[in-house]
Fold this sequence. Notes:
single chain; alpha/beta; Rossmann fold; 10 helices; 52% helix
Amino acid sequence: MKNLQGKTVFITGGGGGIGGGMAQAFAERGARIVLADIDHGFAQEEAAKLPSDVEVFTLPLDVRSLEGWEAARVEAEARFGAVDVLCNNAGISTGFKPLFDVSPEEFERVMAINVTGVYNGIQTFGPAMAARGEGHIVNTSSMNGLSPFASFAAYSASKFAVLALSDALRDELAPQGVGVSTLFPGLTRSRMSEADLGKVSAGDPARRAAIEANMMEAIWLGRAVVRAVENDEPYIVTHPDYREGVRARQERILAAFGEPAQPDYRTGLTATKG
């Protein structure tokens, strides 16, 4: 189990919601916290919620900018030294919207923040972790990255990409002693989820209240992330009630594995190589 006392944790999307929950949970373990958010004011608000003895500082960061990441790295290292845990948590949603209604510009923005933003963070901090032979990277996907549904196609596509990237990266970095975990949150109290909720429950306060009552508090997701880092777990599933939907999808995929499309194709390949 990794000891997080005195370690430096860099969290994007740190201005509330899951990012804020992560900050609180890592602080409970005695870590030093860097909160980055495109809205610096939100990050500062979250920092103010942490206990007074927690070492924390905030900075503005647009995760789409590799230059912005580099500037953030320099500032973080000047303040706390090497970053031990990177949480690529910043993300946006299109809201509940059919794919035909998602403009090219909106689709590109979702991919730039949710996928390229994760890549930029890994490129910024990953090589130094590998060189040191230690560190951990947490990438936030979504339950939509395991079991997509209608009206969330663009968002789901970005979160499936995060899962694939994380799985491959975990295999790549394991020999260097660097762990990689993927977080799959369900409905969690955050600005993004509450904004999406407002769009689907407009004019129906009873429905909104019912959905809000089932939102998980972000601190509990943060604690699940901390446990995964401490134990080098590959996947973090915080909402087990989604299990049956994921299982049904996986069974449909497995059922598609039958006879090869080309009979005896492996025999032909072997003969060609010979």
